[in-house]
Amino acid sequence: MKKRAFPGINTVLKKIYIVLIFIFLYAPILTLIVLSFNSSKTRAKWGGFSFKWYILLFSNRDIMEALSTTLSIALLSSAIATVIGVCTCVGLRKMKSTSRSVIIGVTNIPMLNADIVTGISLMLLFLSIGMKFGFGTILLSHITFNIPYVILSVMPRMKNLNTPVYEAALDLGASPIYAFFKVVLPELLPGILSGFLLAFTMSLDDFIITHFTKGAGIDTLSTKIYTEVKKGIKPEMYALSTIIFVSVLILLILVNKPEKAAKDDVAPPQPVVIP
Amino acid sequence: MSKRLIELNNISKSFGNNIVLDELNLYIRENEFLTLLGPSGCGKTTTLRIIGGFETPDTGTVTFDGTDITALPPNKRQLNTVFQKYALFTHMNIADNIAFGLKIKGKTDKYIRDKIDYALRLVNLEGYGKRMPDSLSGGQQQRIAIARAIVNEPKVLLLDEPLGALDLKLRQDMQYELIRLKEELGITFIYVTHDQEEALTMSDTIVVMNQGYIQQIGTPEDIYNEPENAFVADFIGDSNIIDGIMLQDELVMFLGTKFACVDTGFGTNKPVDVVIRPEDVILSPPERGSLNGVVTHLIFKGVHYEMEVQAGGYEWLVHSTTMYPVGAEVGLSVDPFNIQIMNKPASEDEEAVAIEE
Amino acid sequence: MKNKSRLLSGPYLFWAISFIIIPFCMIFCYGLTDKSGNLTLANILSIATSEHSKALSLSIELSLIATAICLLLGYPLAAILAHMKNSSGVIIFVFILPMWMNFLLRTLAWQTLLEKTGVINTVLSALHLPTINIINTSGAIVLGMVYNFLPFMVLPLYNSLTKIDENVLNAAADLGANAFQTFYKITLPLSVPGIISGITMVFVPALTTFVISKLLGGSKILLIGNVIEEQFTQAGNWHLGSGLSIVLMIFIIINMLLSAVFDKDGEGSVL
To answer: How many whole angstroms separate alpha carbon B160 and alpha carbon B137?
Structure first.
């Protein structure tokens, strides 16, 4: 793949390509950020620079309520999914390979299946057992689609787990539970953490499954936006999204900075990222 | 002597701030089995990759048969490489792997079929053509990697630690295999390894490298018997390396005792390194040697005993077929011919000083 | 961690049966029955009606186009990233960060960009270039699909490309292959698991989307996802909706099987 003849031109072309893709991915995001400072209420015209939507945002009860629902669902569902997911991975280690592949196969269903089918199937389940649609059904659904992300993040770490270290801990007199918490868990931690963050992000960004399982009277940010589409999105929503986006951006930059200085020519770790 | 086929002139290469090769000069003769030997990070693999065309030197030139090939990409060079972890194409069967280079050159089907058969016979893997690389053992994959390279009839075969991933027994078998192949093919082999035993067994010429500099070039016998400096002596085989003072020609003093030697031309009262191979130390009953000592460790090694002897304030490593038990008092002596005298490096850094051929 | 530890997967087993397997079966229960509970194939066969088959064929067409565009755009990007030294940072910015801007808002923003008097056309006319008019057309839907699902294509490709040993590429060059030959004889075949996985990851959500068509296609263009969604949220005919979902699932299952065949070791997996 290395073209030696014109390495200079090649690198420039590569950079241009990456920049173009970035423009494609970030143009809509930039648009939203710009709109959040637009004093005009419609997105069609520019009414001058203003912070007013940021101020109005905090007095908008509907949006604040949707935000708190969204965050509680995301936090609860990713935490519960992480606990269940980690337990599953530990359990899978001692299982027969056939039952293990069955479980992993089942885990892949929500990953590979269409969100609309997953949403509908859960809706039908809640309907037929007569469960009241609301916070509970959303939470159960989010846990369901979050567990696979945790399992698939922790599993590779589990596979590479250094068994002799665990056995050495037992040999030195540690009880299995003590050894698990002192030796195994720290090794799994990066996987657990990325699984949790991934689950949190997925829960936050989900619309389709929530749409089918939420019922009337409760809204996450996504479903709130969806109902607003026809009447026109409230500009406060742009302001809120901008706040969330910019805080995550700053957080990412802060987390990545010291890391970059530390890892000179060490191969970059495989990023654990999923849709 | 046969003609010089490849010449490296004043090659320097650095990665970032790390100077890997510094003003390296080396030539490789036609039909030579030349080994680049040294610890990891000594620049041996980089040297090979420059010859193969996978790295471009920062300065200096590479000539092949008199033509400058420094800027020539690997696919245009008349040499082939056997890579460290074989680098077989896992999505192709063995026959397709071997045929790869020939198909690119547009050879006829019949020619390719004959070549595959010939190459598989040569590496003793007849009938493996339809197998996939993953289904072969490490040693077999290694031989396929060699077959894939040699069907292209290169003038030079580059081998980058090809036996590194194999176990000891297989490694020894493959060493003989490689010598046989080299003789059958009659081409030049350039071999990279950190294993001194491999280098001594197979090579016509060994190039010992350290920290980007060539330390010594010579036949295996030269390198082993006449190491030019303490690094080579230490790296090749086991050695006793002792601080000494060259009192005058053919007389050296170390550990407070004067020893006769055969080296001349060091001047008088000059600090030197004295190198003595463990098998050259002669043990005798006490008072019969030049030094008296006590045996502190004893290990049976099969062909000989390995002993550590405390004598004159130095822990001597001794190989001997006669056994002296731990605690025994012994006398030590060395044949003057077996005492190697070497100049001390002026400073720690210059231990890796370049040596002109 | 000894034998008792197996019990730790118990909760998930229970969860998976309750919330993955049983719901999955419920779609078949509803899809294969009518409102009075009798077995029927009518729900599934209704795909043959002109309205439904039109929606399905449009969905297939648009999602195939979007998948092809994603592959063409994503492969060079993945290859460039795979050769970069510190690509993990870029990867995060390509894949994770945009997700923190709400999916619906991100897609809606394309309205603002694409409108007749929108940002893109303003720029184009300022440069005296012909303006584009694709908002509320199939073109806008394809663009929305590519925009939303491109990362799903790039990631598996990136993962399978980084797994190729550099020495294998060197070996091809060593044996006389030029850059182009090395690419189509070595790199391309070795990245097939990533390609298949990427195609699956893009094709399934594109085929089944109802949001992108609703947001960017105006109200005139109906995809199969919109038809199903309407059955559940407006028409209230869950049996028909389930029946159509079963049809959709046939495509999804074919897709999954395809990826299982080509990607036995999970090499091109998204994780």
So the answer is: 19
Regarding whether B268 and B141 lie in a shared domain, the answer is: no
Q: Is residue B357 part of a domain?
A: no
Per CB-CB distance under 8 Å, the chain C contacts of A27 are 109, 113
Q: What is the CATH number of the domain that holds B142?
A: 3.40.50.300
B17 and B110 fall within a common domain: yes
Lowest-pLDDT range, A258-267, B47-56, B76-85, B228-237? A258-267
Chain C positions touching A249 (Cβ under 8 A) are 97, 100
Rounded to an integer, what distance in angstroms lies between the CA atom of residue A45 and that of residue A27?
18
Range of the domain at B8: 4-225
- In this structure, is residue A187 part of a structural domain? yes
In angstroms, the separation between the Cα of residue A55 and the nearest Cα of chain C is 20
CATH of domain C49-262: 1.10.3720.10
How many angstroms away from the CA of C166 is the closest CA of chain B? 9
What is the arithmetic mean of pLDDT over B50-74? 92
From the CA of A218, how many Å to the nearest CA of chain C?
15
Contact between B334 and B275 under an 8 Å Cβ cutoff? The reply is no
Query: Which residue among B75, B89, B105 sits closest to C173, beta carbon to beta carbon?
Result: B75
Write out the residue range of the structural domain in which residue A203 sits.
61-233
Q: Residue C245: which of A141, A128, A207, A121 has the closest Cα? A: A121
**Per the domain annotation, does A267 fall within a domain?**
no
Both B242 and B152 in a single domain?
Answer: no
Out of A31, A92, A117, name the one closest to residue C119 (CB): A31
Tens digits of residue pLDDT in B5-26? 999 999 999 988 888 999 999 9
Q: How far is C155 from chain B (nearest CA, A)?
A: 22
Mind telling me how many Å the CA of C185 is from chain B's nearest CA? 9
Q: Which of A1, A185, C171 is nearest to B80 (CA)?
A: C171
Tell me if A265 and B16 make a contact (CB, 8 A cut-off).
yes
First to last CA, chain A: 28
Question: Is residue B181 within a helix (H) or strand (E), and if so which, with residue range?
Answer: helix B168-185
List all residues 6 or more positions away from C82 whose beta carbon is below 8 Å from its beta carbon.
C158, C161, C162, C164
Q: Sheet holding B188-193: strands in order across?
A: B79-82, B156-160, B188-193, B33-37, B205-210, B213-218
Q: Is B83 on the interface with C (CB under 8 A)?
A: yes
Q: Give the CATH number for residue A79.
A: 1.10.3720.10
Give me the number of domains chain B comprises. 2
pLDDT per residue as tens digits for the range A196-205:
998 999 999 8
Domain annotation covers residue B203: yes
Other C-beta atoms within 10 Å of B348: how many? 7
Do C255 and C200 touch, CB atoms closer than 8 A? yes
Instruction: Please give the tally of structural domains in chain A.
Output: 1
Same structural domain for residues B234 and B215? no
Residue B199 shares a structural domain with residue B257: no
- Report the residue of B100, B107, B156 to disrupt the C interface, i.e. the one with the largest count of C CBs within 10 Å: B100
| B297 interfacial to chain C (CB closer than 8 Å) | no
Which pTM does this prediction carry? Answer: 0.81
Q: Where residue B330 sits, what CATH number does that domain have? A: 2.40.50.140
Task: Report the candidate in B276, A144, A269, A152 with the shortest Cα–Cα distance to residue C270.
Answer: A152
Point out the domain boundary residue: B225, B246, B274. B225
Chain B residues inside the 8 Å CB shell of C176 = 75, 101, 104-105, 152
pLDDT 10s digit of each residue in chain C, 271 long? Answer: 445 677 788 888 889 899 989 998 999 999 999 888 888 888 888 888 888 999 999 999 999 999 999 999 999 999 998 888 777 777 777 777 888 888 899 998 998 888 877 778 888 888 888 888 888 889 999 999 999 999 999 989 998 998 898 899 999 999 999 999 999 999 999 999 899 989 988 999 999 999 999 999 887 889 999 999 989 888 888 899 999 999 998 888 888 787 777 765 544 444 4
Name chain A's partners: 3 or more CB pairs within 8 A. B, C
The answer for C 99-128 residues in CB contact with A (under 8 A) is 99-113, 115, 117, 119
